[in-house]
Amino acid sequence: MNADPSDYSDEDHGDADRSMHSCNSSPSSYSMHTDSDEDTCTEILLPEREAKPSGADQDDFKYEVLSVTQIVQHQWQIIDEVNSVLSLPPQITRCILNQYKWNKERLFEEYFDSSPEEFFQRAHLVNPFIKAPAHVSFEGNGVGGQEEDICGICLCPSDDLRSLGCGHKFCSDCWKQYLAQKTFGEGLGHSIACPAENCEIVVDYVSFLILADDREVIGRYQQLITNTFVECNALLRWCPAPSCCRAIQVNNPEARAVRCKCGHQFCFGCGENWHEPASCSLLRQWLKKCREDSETSNWIAQNTKECPKCNVTIEKDGGCNHMVCKNPNCRYDFCWVCLGSWEPHGSSWYSCNRFNEEEAKKARLAQQQYRSTMARYLHYYNRYMNHMQSRRLEHNIYAKVQAKMKAMRETMTWFEVQFLEEAVEVLCQCRVTLMYSYVFAYYLRNNNQKIIFEDNQRDLESATEKISECLEREITAPNLQSIRLKVLDLSHYCERRRSVLLCHVREGNEKDWWEFTDDPARTQPAGP
Q1: Residues 521, 484 contacting (CB under 8 angstroms)
Q2: Does the structure show a pLDDT above 80 at 19?
Q3: According to the model, what pLDDT value does residue 374 have?
Q4: Given a cut of 90, is residue 496 above it in pLDDT?
Q5: Interstrand relation of 247-250 and 63-66 (parallel, antiparallel or unpaired)
Q6: Which region ranges are annotated with the description Disordered (predicted)?
Q7: Residues 126-149: pLDDT tens digits?
Q8: At what angle do helices 358-393 and 414-442 cross, to 10 degrees?
Q9: So what's the pLDDT on residue 270?
């Protein structure tokens, strides 16, 4: 985003804090959000369309996409509102607001319930009513019989010592190195304190500009304090798309679908790609489980067994079938072949013939149940990943559609060829819904409503594969007019099936049909 520097002017407040630099860097440096490795999909940018509501009655949910300029203006609006009551210097008000996470009501409550000295001490500021903020004081060497001043960091005499309101003096070079380390090395903004030991007085914005005296360091600092403002505000969230410096402002902090001007649609509640029908908490559990289980589950199933007593996973690293559980609280001796207790085996160390004993049967049953739960997880995981991969590959379909539409415009109107673009968008929406429907289903307990859900899921999956095949194989037909009705019919049917599935889930949320388990692998028998 190339912003006009005049957009960040602070002349009306007389505070250099308004001079935000333009956001030309990656959003990874502008905001601290991260994307899940398991849930990263190629984003297909289609013509901008308002995010569809995720519930039946969402007229009260509104949101706005804000640029960096608008975010800074929003900061100053809050500062002005507080200063209309407290009449403090703007840079002091900014520090106090950050201390209270930009919560005006809590700030006012604490301010009027405390003495000024206590209030500013908690905010790590010098009381401005006792000592007016001069930002930075400059001092030179002592003369005559006065003691010579030295820097508190490098311990060298200097004629360019600078201090905050606390009076601790450091040379300009040490200040520059200290502030650069705090911003680039530690990622600190508003919470940078005086370098003196045990001094908690914070560096306000204007003091930072004077002491840092470096455009790159100041730019990083501005990014950090703006990011802190967004993260502290429950009604704001950065767009997680790469190279996007916009934020979303909502009227209610709920888990709803929002779409940035860059085209990226995501969940305001958690910042992940929009994941209906799965809730934020279910998705969080799922992504964590995928990170922990996916890479090792196949190997574990083929090369290990579980202790029949405590279920600790054990790898057989030798030829002997006499196994001893390594769990210090268990130390159970058992046979690798039949999983029965080793004690009655006698001398049958290498040729177990105890397959019919009741104890061995129970052990094998426990083993089978464990592996069945692993198979259940892999069932849902493989289908989740399959739809994610299909969505990535279908980015190529969109490129083909664009080329075909361009060729068709020579003989047809834009309205007549638009159906192709809309069909690709429907396909992508269905893929996303199917992806997260498997997350929803994995944690769902069995009941009659789950059967209906799985029927709807099956119908949507079937319809999605049909339109995907049509767009992939028939898009190259010389006369697209012949398949126009087919594409339109498939597209409309997919939309209906997707709507049926989502409406059923929403109705279940309203009527408490759904029961979930935190760990289906432990509490629920294996299922398809």
Answers
A1: no
A2: no
A3: 76
A4: yes
A5: antiparallel
A6: 1-41
A7: 888 876 555 566 555 444 434 568
A8: 160
A9: 92
**Distance between CA atoms of 416 and 388, rounded to whole angstroms?**
30
Residue 353 burial by CB count (10 A; 0-12/13-18/19+): exposed, middle or buried? Answer: exposed
Residue type present at position 42 = T
Asked if residue 308 has a cis previous peptide bond (ω within 30° of 0), the answer is no
Q: How far apart are CA 475 and CA 501, in angstroms?
A: 28
| C-alpha distances in Å from residue 126, one per residue of 118, 172, 208, 249 | 11, 21, 16, 34
Residue that has been written with the tokens 């692993």 in this structure: 374
Element (H, E) at 313: strand 313-315
- Give the full edge-to-edge strand order of the sheet including 169-171: 137-139, 161-163, 169-171
Residue with tokens 């703007």: 90
Domains and their CATH numbers in the chain: 1-124+172-195+203-274 (no CATH), 370-523 (1.20.120.1750)
Residues 265 and 200: their CA atoms lie apart, in Å, by: 42
d(CA 202, CA 165): 10
At 193, the amino acid letter reads: A
What are the backbone dihedrals phi and psi of residue 328, each rounded to the nearest 5 degrees, phi first? Answer: -60, -20
pTM for this prediction: 0.69
List, by residue number, the catalytic residues.
Answer: 320
Cβ contact 248:63 at 8 Å: yes
Strands (E) across 112-176 are located at 137-139, 161-163, 169-171
**What does the alpha-carbon distance between residue 104 and residue 117 come to, in Å, rounded to a whole number?**
19
Report the pLDDT value the prediction gives residue 526, as an integer from 0 to 100.
31
CB 402 within 8 A of CB 414: no
Q: Look at residues 200, 17, 16, 208 and name the one whose alpha carbon lies nearest to residue 125.
A: 200
Q: Are 23 and 226 in contact (CB under 8 A)?
A: no
Would you say 110 and 99 are in contact if contact means Cβ atoms under 8 Å apart? no
Tokens of 433: 């819904």
Sort 230 into a burial class: Cβ within 10 Å, 0-12 / 13-18 / 19+.
Answer: buried
pLDDT at 31: 38
∠ Cα 422 426 431 (to 5°): 150
CA 324, CA 332: separation in Å to the nearest integer? 6
Residue type, 393: L
CA 399 to mean position of chain CA atoms: 29
Residues 6+ apart with CB under 8 A from 212: 175, 176, 179, 180, 183, 218, 221
Q: Which residues contact 292 (CB under 8 A, 6 or more apart)?
A: none
> Which residues have CB under 8 Å from 240's CB, separation 6+?
27, 33, 35, 264, 266, 271, 272
Other Cβ atoms less than 10 A from the Cβ of 115: the count is: 9
The Cα 257–Cα 276 span in angstroms is 9
Question: H-helix or E-strand containing 250?
Answer: strand 247-250
